[in-house]
Specification:
It is built from 14 helices and 17 strands. By secondary structure, the protein is of the alpha/beta class. Strand 12, helix 12 and strand 13 form a beta-alpha-beta unit. The chain binds zinc ion.
């Protein structure tokens, strides 16, 4: 099978990282399914030698991957704070009001749009995952249960639903056809509308060895330079960019129609392009060193696990994020090392992690069993979790994060 770059159609020949074979990172296993077969797929990421888009070939339909997505944004406090801060910032900067229309693609359970709605700004969410779309509607957020692309955009345009503010947070990576997606954004953006899109920054992924953020649901991994090329190609101009701490380092890009000169181009745009080039993101060599870096990380993680178990200590996990599943499957860590993990989401409790079958329990289990080490799998929420779980110090328990390297917090 020949893989083609999903942006420029160049043949993909260069491997960025090979994480072996894994189940879908969000395919949590119910107790009654633990004796059944689980599908595993190669987790091999390529870099396009022509446009430098880092990407995973599509092997399974989006419908299958996203039909019952277990991630509810509202279960993370720091994520809600981030959403609220964004709402205040964007309304302040662009002056949206009750005459404006805000559309969010991949609006999840309405965690973000609720803040616009509270300020009397009309909103529309677009969310393909049934269970989360339902939760959003129950919370009073008008939500269209669909995948976004040109077809959905044309349907909205036909009904006169255009956006003054079009938001796409952490969705670009999930889109199998990015050209159709960005083209669709152009269709529903009002002539003077603003697009903001947030996505994890590839530069940070490489620098901080965040290989666990790679999973089948994430088809593409963007540098700022590549995002810039993709938007420009579709008649949208990025006029500003913010660097954010979310998801281990994300970018928020601001775009308008190329025909719309309302905003000047911020100097941050050129500065970030220059920095990426200086870091080597415009050279294939940088991408080809990543695989070795990941293999070395795996050996260090296993070294910690083996040493700790040889000392007779107990290890449990905190959190059941998709990224944890990549890491655990790649490293071959099962209940032989991590007895169980816990998660605040009642949708995950009682289930098992895909592939490794580590049970997901209620967070109270940690106080009950008093483990020596608690591995924080969603390391991006480390501070929040260490606060919530500070009581593990009562029995001299220690927190551990594994990315970018093994760190023990005593
Ligand atoms: Zn390409």
């Amino acid at each position: 099978m020949i893989n083609k770059c999903r942006f420029c159609d160049n043949t993909l020949e260069h491997i960025f990282v090979d994480l072996g074979i894994s189940p879908l990172a969000n395919a949590y296993v119910a107790a009654k399914q633990t004796n059944q077969m689980e599908p595993f797929y190669p987790l091999r990421v390529y870099v396009c030698a022509q446009c430098y888009l880092v990407q995973l070939p599509v092997f399974e339909s989006s419908e299958k991957i996203f039909c019952d997505y277990a991630y509810f944004s509202s279960f993370s406090d720091s994520w809600l704070q981030h959403a609220k801060a964004y709402t205040d910032l964007i309304i302040d900067r662009f002056g949206f009001d009750s005459e404006s229309h805000v559309i969010e693609i991949a609006s999840n359970d309405g965690y973000l749009l609720q803040y616009f709605k509270a300020k009397g700004i009309p909103v529309l969410g677009i969310e393909p995952a049934q269970n989360v779309a339902r939760a959003a509607r129950e919370a009073g957020i008008q939500t269209l249960e669909k995948f976004f692309g040109c077809q959905t955009a044309r349907e909205l345009a036909k009904e006169g639903k255009y956006a003054d503010l079009l938001i796409g947070n952490n969705v670009l990576a999930h889109v199998p056809d990015i050209k159709d997606f960005v083209k669709g954004m152009k269709i529903i953006l009002k002539p003077h509308g603003v697009i903001t899109v947030e996505f994890p920054h590839l530069l940070r992924l490489i620098e901080e060895n965040q290989f666990d953020t790679i999973y089948h649901e994430h088809f593409s991994y963007f540098s700022f330079a590549v995002a810039n090329k993709v938007f420009e190609h579709h008649g949208l101009r990025i006029f500003d960019v913010d660097e954010l701490p979310t998801h281990g380092g994300s970018l928020r890009i601001y775009a308008r129609h190329v025909e719309d000169a309302t905003s000047g181009i911020s100097e941050k745009v050129a500065a970030l392009l220059e920095r990426e080039a200086a870091e080597g993101l415009e050279n294939l060599e940088l991408y080809l060193t990543f695989n070795q870096k990941v293999r070395s990380a795996k050996r260090s993680i296993l070294e910690f696990m083996v040493k700790t178990k040889n000392e007779g200590k107990t290890i449990v996990g905190y959190g059941a994020p998709a990224k944890g599943n990549t890491l655990l499957n790649y490293c071959g860590i099962r209940t032989d090392f991590i007895e169980y993990t816990v998660d605040r989401s009642p949708y995950k409790q009682g289930h098992f992690l895909p592939g490794t079958h580590i049970p997901i329990l209620h967070p109270d289990k940690i106080r009950e069993t008093q483990p020596d080490y608690v591995i924080i799998l969603p390391w991006n929420l480390k501070d929040e979790i260490m606060n919530q779980m500070a009581h593990i110090r009562e029995w001299n328990g220690k927190f551990v994060t594994l990315i970018p390297e093994v760190r023990i917090y005593s």
